[in-house]
Write a structure and sequence with these properties.
2 copies of one chain form a homodimer. By secondary structure, chain A is an alpha/beta fold. The first copy, chain A, has 4 domains: about 180 residues, FAD/NAD(P)-binding domain (3-Layer(bba) Sandwich), CATH 3.50.50; about 110 residues, 3-Layer(bba) Sandwich (FAD/NAD(P)-binding domain); about 110 residues, FAD/NAD-linked reductase, C-terminal dimerisation domain (Enolase-like, domain 1); about 80 residues, Rhodanese-like domain (Oxidized Rhodanese, domain 1). Helices cover about 25% and strands about 25% of the residues of chain A. The first copy, chain A, has 14 helices and 31 strands. Chain A has a 5-stranded parallel β-sheet. In chain A, strands 9-16-10-11-12 form a 5-stranded parallel β-sheet. A 5-stranded antiparallel β-sheet of chain A has the order 22-23-26-25-24, sandwiched between helices. In chain A, helix 1 links the parallel strand 1 and strand 2. The N and C termini of chain A lie far apart (about 60 Å). The interface between A and B is large, with 93 and 93 residues.
């Protein structure tokens, strides 16, 4: 039975905080709930901020899911905005809060406290960093400032090509600005494996974004009306507005001062019921370090989905610890659209597995997002990664124009269920020509993995640099003629058996086609006839 | 190691047959493979046929994935089209085949035989059924005939409102025909629960389809230039063209004559390696009875996905029984689009569970397909059904405009993994405003189920007929005013606590909103204050 005599104080009134308060109220009309929020707004749609800046979301109002008044009326609780929590007295179970700009404040006593302070955008101490033209994006006020500045700007520089950076670059282009995107890593979306980001890079460039990869930002200098952004390597870019989206840091100073356990990167450490090292103090959302659902290792996933679920779970455990269902850990599923291309991922990348020395295998496949013969089919490239030995799926990444989110959602579900790579072969997914294929690209990944494990499929992810290798394009001759591949010989699949005598058995062969399917068939034929052939994954 | 000295004969050259042949060839260049196909075509896209009739797929050629010649060249095998298998001599391991229109034929010996004969559209012995204006749709020739007839027709009648019937009704409307759709059951899509098909029915009617539910077809009579279709109840509809899509019957006569075990409905019974009761004779595709993945009960799922996988598996087992991975059974995932509405399902419906007396629970939720504040959000209604006691997910159905296939694919994956309903709460699905919500409608189903199990959520699927019940619309007052609900009182959620004194505690209350979320919150408030309140599932 839920406890109804509790006094709950929630620090932070956005995703995790609002979820906790709402759930607590659903469990009991009697419990006392107070939300303390540093800013003027509660429960706003922070993921929508870039889209209002770019004008895709025309009305600012729709981003305010609740005003403090409506949240208070809806849930029957107290909302204190523009109010900061400055000190926790754990022994007395009270938290000191004060209105912004005032000194003293007052103590609020609690039976259960939730910390949902979120995370702040990083703003490194670079020369010129305090220039007012350099923005970060966290709340509605940041959004308003960027939107107002963008209206007068001609040139925008976005620093950081993660999810928010890509959204901002796209939205600034919607506004007609000249946009430069600067990324320290030699690839877009550093969360993904580099070779999965090529389509996105081409799309950004085709849409007029000036992309600088492998470029650190070294400082800013005012130059007349504009700002000079100095990049590593001596390049300098002019900007009227700069948005920094290079990551976030958990707002854990209150927790730290209260002596709660923090993780290596400063997050508030919680257990599977969102309790901090003080069992009456819970934490949820972007500021916490929970654990990875796949490996059990410590993990912080600053995303809206986990924040909502963690907040809700904290309320369940505060109110009725016996019946609360434990948090299963985070997987880290994310998606971003830039212009016509979508990239998404779930779980672990090859890059991250390598860095933590976890043994894995991976397969990369490509196929159309629905039946090829139905108009509008566009290809999806899908990589699935699994644990060597057990076959347990560890992660996936996909890139394409349509249906990318669907495939990653399916694999995120498979990961949550602890499925193995071969289980993907037999998934029965929706199939009608406008929606999918009899063998969906997710099924293909499972089948290709079986073939890889069985030694039938030998795949390379890029064309050989080696001049010795014979590159054979097995597409129909007319496709080859319309888009010939340099250094490749055209031997269409349907005459491969007849013409394989033209090839040298003593030299390696790489077979190539549009999607990586026919080239696999061709490699099978060749390998059974004494050649050493590999298929180029995901085709052209 | 695969056996390379096999002689494989495949009867039927479309989905299952072509998959088997292709896989066998991939496993060995040496094995002998002969495909025997009754019709003139192999490996054609049968799911695309309606879309070529309606002109959405402009080119007929794209439906022929392979010609007999290209399939033969691609796979290095023999293709015999217009050739029927007429007799199996199991003792001598040979099958007699003959060219269409000839008498004698010849015997082909086999080591392993695959039967992939498919299923024929039903054509019941009704008065007038032999009129040449009455069509069924199975192959390219049927398609050509319907397309030619439709070009001269003004009025079409489609009999049967399953997946193909709906596609045909839609495509005939694309061609500008007057379309009547006749269904014996009192609902569209008899595979689904009736109340999940309401949106689809409205969409068909809004798009000018004349829908006759609960109407059997009793016969046909020529009347001048047109055909009168007589329905039960005395109604008669005029047609220039009729398409029957009332189901299929497995083409199992060859198997029956050979003494192979058939199921209750005439399917060829196979084991988990697609072997019939004769271990050297395999069967796959629409003609087979395999087993249900969820319950293990016998099951026949005539869909393209299972057909492809079964054909492939048969080849694996023929070639190397030691390493073949068993078929896990079929779930039955299907999707159909009609105009702007998509309906999809996976696993068991309530209706089917009731008919087999399996104890279950179900929850119905509704939410937008992506963040409500991002332009273009449209609602999805999702029902998820689970086994009472264990919580194991048994099935799901969804209806909406966008993203319906994605949600059903996620749940089909959860079913394949044996997940429980509560596992849906914590799935981490792709979330960015254009793609989803921090709490996706799939998560909501899991959360609502938890609430149902915990006794927090009390749901009704329709408004009470009972005049005693108090129906309370908790939407904001301006929404209620713009679309008032008869017999409902408007008490917006944010003043419910203040105004609940207006309600009579001695009478039941049903709360209503747009999506079924706020009404749940309202029911919680009321039930904690001594009322007996239930929430209308999935809102208006």
């Amino acid at each position: 039975m839920p406890r109804e005599d509790l006094k709950i104080v929630v620090i932070g009134g956005v995703a995790a905080g609002a979820s906790c308060a709402a759930r607590a109220r659903r469990l009991s009309e009697k419990v006392s709930i107070t939300i303390v929020e540093r800013g003027p707004d509660v429960s706003f749609a922070n993921c929508g901020l870039p889209y209002h800046i770019g004008g895709e979301i025309a009305s600012r109002d729709v981003l305010s899911i609740h005003t403090p008044q409506s949240l208070s009326a809806m849930l029957g609780l107290e909302v204190r905005t523009n109010t900061e929590a400055v000190e926790i007295d754990r022994a007395a179970k009270r938290v000191r809060v004060r209105k912004t700009g005032t000194e003293e404040g007052e103590w609020l006593s609690y039976d259960k406290l939730l910390l949902a302070p979120g995370a702040s955008p990083l703003r490194p101490p670079l020369p010129g960093i305090d220039d007012p033209r350099i923005h970060t994006l966290r709340n509605l006020q940041d959004m308003d400032a960027i939107k107002a500045a963008a209206a007068k700007a001609r040139k925008a520089v976005v620093v950081g090509a993660g999810f928010i950076g890509l959204e901002m670059a796209e939205q600034f282009r919607h506004l007609g600005l000249d946009v430069s995107l600067v990324e320290l890593q030699p690839q877009l979306l550093p969360q993904l494996d580099a070779d999965m980001t090529g389509q996105l890079l081409r799309e950004l460039r085709q849409n007029g974004v000036d992309v600088h990869l492998g470029s650190g930002i070294e400082g800013f200098a005012s130059a007349g009306d504009s700002l000079q952004c100095r990049l590593s390597g001596g390049v300098s870019i002019e900007a009227d507005i700069v948005v920094l989206s290079i990551g976030v840091r958990p707002d854990s100073s209150l927790a730290a001062a209260a002596g709660l356990t923090l993780g290596k990167r400063g997050h508030i450490v919680v257990n599977e019921f969102m309790q901090t090292s003080d069992p009456d103090i819970y934490a949820a959302g972007d500021a916490v370090e929970s654990f990875d659902r796949i490996t059990g290792r410590p993990s912080a996933v600053p995303l809206g989905g986990p924040a909502n679920r963690q907040g809700r779970l904290a309320a369940c455990h505060m109110m009725d610890p016996e019946s609360a269902r434990p948090y299963p850990g985070s997987i880290g599923t994310a998606v971003v659209r830039a212009f016509g291309v979508t990239c998404a991922m779930t779980g672990w990348s090859e890059k991250r597995l390598k860095s933590e020395a976890i043994a894995y295998k991976a397969v990369t496949v490509k196929d159309n997002h629905h039946a090829s013969y139905y108009p509008g089919a566009t290809p999806i490239t899908l990589r699935v990664i699994w644990e060597e030995g057990t076959g347990r799926i560890l992660g996936a990444q996909a890139s394409g124009q349509e249906g990318v989110d669907k495939r990653i959602d399916v694999i995120a579900t498979a990961i949550a269920a602890g499925m193995c790579i071969e289980d993907l072969s037999n998934l029965e997914l929706c199939y009608a020509p406008p929606f999918g294929s009899a063998k969906d690209v997710v099924n293909l990944a499972g089948l290709a993995a079986e073939n890889l494990v069985d030694g039938l499929l030998t795949q390379v992810n890029e064309l050989p640099k080696d001049a010795l290798a014979q590159v054979i394009d097995v597409r129909p001759a007319k496709l080859f003629q319309s888009a010939p591949r340099p250094n490749a010989t055209s031997i269409p699949m349907d005459c491969l058996r007849a013409r394989m005598g033209e090839l040298d058995k003593s030299r390696p062969v790489v077979t190539v086609c549009a999607l990586g399917k026919t080239s696999y068939f061709a490699a099978r034929v060749l390998n059974q006839n004494g050649f050493s052939a590999k298929s180029l994954a995901a085709g052209v």
